[in-house]
Design a protein that fits this description.
Layout (H helix, E strand, L loop, with lengths): L5 H20 L3 H4 L4 H24 L1 H6 L8 H11 L4 H13 L4 H8 L5 H17 L9 H18 L2 H8 L2 H5 L1 H13 L2 E6 L5 E6 L2 H13 L10 H21 L29 E2 L5 E2 L1 H7 L5 E7 L6 E8 L4 H10 L17 E4 L14 E4 L1 H28 L1
Antiparallel strand pairs: 1-2, 3-4, 5-6, 7-8
């Protein structure tokens, strides 16, 4: 009896794969979250079987698969294209299936949670998409993160998070995946955002003014909250864009009034809430980047900048297991009014080391020595910094810490 040729083996296994895929294609995404655990377990078995068949076919007929643009070293995009051509799937369906096939072997904890019926298959698909985003978008090698370590971080996060959240909240986590697994990368991206910040004003012949602004993620929280705070009531006669324009003009008027007062304040208080652990306010913290109430991801350097000058720290004691609040307290980190007046009289503008012309009325009052290094709120430790340079100051602390930490690890490996 002659051995089966690679081409015949590929054709036979391809038919088996099509049978497994046909069952999965008929399942809509909406159905995944409501299926009972018993059916989810069965679907997971089919999914694992499909992955095994793909790998088996690749092992027996790797040359054929590579030549046809199929599973090339388990590349997710190669699997997707192969499923589109041979599995008769749409690009969206093929992409979701390719994510799962590509990452099932790495997300062992999450896969076990699906097999046990703890979370649904929809969670697994979102988790696989998060893993693909991390591998594709994160340049982890420059931070010394190995793929095995990345998978372990992702898998631990998914297994713990998916149990507590539904699919939409887990999808929101996908946009914050960089903050979860690569805080140094978030800091560098934030620094690039700061370098690209700009505001363009173009005056028309009629006297009208066109304003185009680009801000970083942290500054965006203040812009959005300031606009929201002064947004006129909805009278259904003006669009949201028109009302936002009115709010922007109102904020500018408040800034002019604040400048006339000769005090380093910026008008009405704008509430921007950022939830971080108390240890996260130190550059030596290993915590991840944080998220504002609006869901915007900001690096810890920006969070630390927010906790200077005018900020109020509110302590919330939580139960370790569930995270439910147990007690609430406050601790003010404010310069007294007399010091603020003295700073306004002493300095005329932002005191950034390289020079800055922003007037002191539009500046934060920052601490030369941060409070987490023992700094106190007295005149000798007070310095006005504009928002951009305030963020840059905090960003330098973090990048310097990560640079020293990476150099230390490199020396240990060399030794």
């Amino acid at each position: 009896m002659s051995a089966e040729s690679p081409t015949a083996a590929a054709s036979r296994l391809f038919a088996q794969i099509q049978d497994a895929l046909s069952e999965l294609v008929t399942i809509s995404d909406d159905d995944l979250g409501v299926l009972p655990a018993s059916l989810l377990g069965g679907l997971t078995v089919d999914l694992l079987a499909m992955r095994d068949k793909v790998e088996l076919c690749a092992l027996r007929s790797m040359r054929l698969f590579v030549n046809q643009g199929g599973v090339d070293k388990s590349n997710a995009n190669g699997i997707k294209q192969w499923l589109v051509r041979n599995g008769k799937m749409s690009h969206a369906d093929a992409s979701r299936r390719a994510h799962v096939v590509r990452h099932l072997h790495g997300l062992k904890r999450t896969r076990s949670a699906v097999d046990g019926g703890v979370i649904g298959l929809g969670h697994m698909m979102v988790a696989a998409g998060c893993a693909d985003t991390a591998l594709k978008d994160l340049k982890v090698e420059e931070d010394g993160i190995k793929p095995v370590e990345l998978y372990d971080r992702l898998d631990k996060e998914f297994a713990e998070t998916a149990i507590r959240f539904n699919v939409p909240l887990l999808q929101r986590m996908q946009s914050q995946i960089r903050a979860v697994v690569n805080p140094p990368g978030v800091e560098r991206e934030f620094e690039r955002q700061c370098d690209r910040r700009e505001l363009q004003m173009m005056r028309e012949a009629t006297g009208a003014l066109n304003v185009n602004i680009k801000v970083d993620a942290a500054s965006a929280t203040f812009v959005e909250e300031a606009i929201r705070l002064h947004l006129p009531p909805n009278d259904r006669k003006r669009t949201f864009a028109q009302r936002a324009n009115d709010a922007f003009v109102e904020v500018c008027k408040i800034a002019i009034d604040a400048a006339d007062s000769k005090l380093p304040r910026k008008g009405n208080a704008v509430a921007v809430r950022v939830h971080v652990g108390i240890d996260s306010l130190s550059p030596s913290s290993q915590s991840r980047a944080t998220v504002t109430d609006s869901g915007r991801t900001v690096p810890l350097s920006a969070a630390r900048a927010m906790t200077n000058g005018d900020s109020v720290l509110q302590r919330i004691l939580t139960e370790p297991a569930s995270g439910n609040p147990l007690d609430i307290g406050t601790a003010a980190q404010l310069f007294p009014p007399n010091i603020r007046v003295a700073v306004a009289a002493k300095f005329g503008n932002c005191q950034w080391e390289e020079g800055c012309s922003v007037p002191v009325a539009a500046c934060d009052i920052s601490m030369k020595t941060p409070w987490w290094r023992g700094g106190v709120d007295d005149m000798a430790n007070a310095i006005p910094l504009c928002w951009h340079h305030h963020l840059l100051k905090e960003n330098r602390y973090v990048l310097d810490y990560y640079r020293k930490s990476f150099e230390a690890r490199a020396q240990e490996r060399a030794a």
